[in-house]
Amino acid sequence: MKKPLTKIIKGKTVEVGFDHNVRVALDKFSEALEAKKLADKAKEEAEEVLRLALGDAEFATISGQKAFKMMQVIMDRPDLKKLQEEFPEVYKAVAVDGSYEFIRAIN
User: Fold this and answer.
1) Is the Cβ–Cβ distance between 50 and 60 less than 8 Å?
2) The whole model's pTM is what?
């Protein structure tokens, strides 16, 4: 069962600067986001090297042992925008709530 969204009051602000735990958590949160960005960039750069090494092969070996391979995921997805425009009743009937929450650091 999906967790309901927190009820928030638009425009409401709360001062949390006096709470040491919140300040520490925000610092950790921001540091983790930055670390993730760096990790994603490093992964992207490494993947580029591995793709070049693979060429058109499916598998790559190191000392005769399979080390990595190319994976392909083939997906057919419905064009939801087109479905909503051309068949709004069907779109409403099959729409699933995709709402979610997340924290975004502002500074």
Assistant:
1) yes
2) 0.69
Give me the tens of pLDDT residue by residue for the chain, a chain 107 residues long.
677 788 888 999 999 988 999 999 999 999 999 999 999 999 999 999 999 999 999 999 999 999 999 999 999 999 999 999 999 999 999 999 889 898 898 87
Residue recorded with tokens 């921001």: 30
Is the CB of residue 83 less than 8 Å from the CB of residue 89? no
The residues spanned by each domain of the chain are 20-94
Cα–Cα dist 102/107, whole Å? 16
Tokens 């070049």 label which residue?
52
Tell me how far apart the alpha carbons of residues 64 and 103 are, in angstroms, rounded to a whole number: 46
CA distance 80 to 87: 10
One-letter identity of residue 30: S
CA 71 to chain centre: 19
Query: Cα(48)–Cα(77) distance, rounded to whole angstroms?
Result: 27
